[in-house]
Design a protein that fits this description.
The chain contains nine helices and seven strands; from the N terminus they run H-E-E-H-H-H-E-H-H-E-E-E-H-H-E-H. The protein is of the alpha+beta class.
């Protein structure tokens, strides 16, 4: 078992003293690390170093989100599986993500039938195993973000969140694509607008989109997300500047390109969201022992 990393009940050795300047602002020069530091939102940037040294790697560890998302699919602290593939492009990334998800589902179907029968009877109350087997044995549909937006705009129904080219897809749009447009088939959406994606995603030749992808599944929406990484130093420096980030903070990440890099790609899969999907649980807070979410850090 893994205890939560974020705790409101400090154990031995914990300190609440925060060094401050005369105006009350935090004095980071006297803080523990001597500069601002943060809970990680991903192990990806570090995994890229490993991948460029050792080829194909993965990380599995706690990650954090500070967004105020009180939904049945979001946690403030969760565990994430993050493969990183050297000498790989976006197509390789999509192939790996599809194969990995299918492997996980087939393994559970083969080795955990008794557990799945329990969840089917008591939790999902539907054809859970049949749904999982369909995903595990069906070729995933693949479309561009532009095609996805066109499908949503052509829908003969109203959505809570309107969509237009350049906006991020919401869960209702993702589920519409997988459940209605593609008839309960998983869908991989690729080539998102660069304005809604991170600086490290490889810019496409059109200058408007990046080589990013999301894996969408019925009843959930996004289950995995990834991209080909930007290996061109000058483009990466420009993207960091465009997003108003401090390039000095990323000196080591830029050096990975400056002194020689390779095309590489990777993705992340939230472990608790996978467990939620496989078990049919309605709320992700029920598949982790000590859930962390806005205004709650008990135990």
């Amino acid at each position: 078992p893994h205890p939560p990393s974020a705790s409101a009940s400090p154990a031995s050795g914990a300190s609440r003293d925060v060094p401050r300047k005369a105006d009350g602002a935090v004095d980071y020069s006297k803080d523990f690390f001597g500069k601002p530091s943060y809970l990680t939102v991903s192990g990806q940037l570090n995994a890229e170093i490993y991948a460029c040294a050792m080829r194909d790697v993965y990380t599995f560890g706690p990650t954090f989100r500070a967004e105020n998302s009180n939904t049945s699919r979001h946690l403030a602290e969760f565990w994430m599986v993050e493969p990183e593939l050297a000498f790989a492009d976006l197509v390789d990334d999509m192939d790996c993500a599809e194969a990995y998800l299918k492997h996980c589902l087939l393994h559970v179907l083969e080795h955990c039938d008794e557990d799945l029968a329990f969840f089917e009877e008591n939790i999902s109350k539907d054809n859970l195993r049949e749904r999982l087997r369909q995903v595990a044995t069906t070729e995933f549909a693949r479309i561009t973000y532009t095609e996805a937006v066109e499908h949503v705009l052509a829908a003969e129904r109203k959505f809570e969140f309107p969509v237009k080219w350049g906006s991020d897809l919401q869960s209702e749009h993702e589920r519409y694509l997988t459940e209605e447009v593609f008839k309960n088939t998983p869908v991989i959406v690729r080539d998102y607008p660069k304005a809604v994606k991170a600086f490290y995603m490889r810019e496409n030749e059109d200058g408007k989109t990046v080589a990013a992808m999301d894996v969408l599944v019925p009843r959930v929406g996004e289950l995995m997300g990834g991209s080909q990484r930007e290996e061109r130093l000058e483009v990466l420096e420009r993207r960091i500047a465009e997003q108003g980030l401090d390039a000095e903070t990323y000196w080591w990440y830029l050096d990975l390109r400056r002194y020689g890099s390779v095309p590489h790609a990777g993705f992340g899969l939230g472990f608790e969201r996978l467990v939620q999907y496989v078990t049919g649980m309605e709320n992700i807070r029920d598949v982790i022992p000590f859930p962390r979410y806005p205004n709650s850090a008990e135990f």
